[in-house]
Amino acid sequence: NISDKNIEDWTLSFSAGFNIDNIWRAKLDKQDGNSYTVNNLGYNSIIKPDESETFGMQVSFSDALYKPETL
Question: Which carries the bigger pLDDT value, residue 62 or residue 40?
């Protein structure tokens, strides 16, 4: 958070060429094709100034177009 105010109840929306199989430190709120929206989990809902939040996920690739050769 590079602002001088708290970010409350954060949400992140993004598009990606993979399927989310598992996610932690966030909740998968919405999926529409390859568009995703993830939200905080309550305990990590506030990001104070000069702080950050992280989450992780396990993904899989079903389309050869997006499938990486190595990770």
Answer: 40
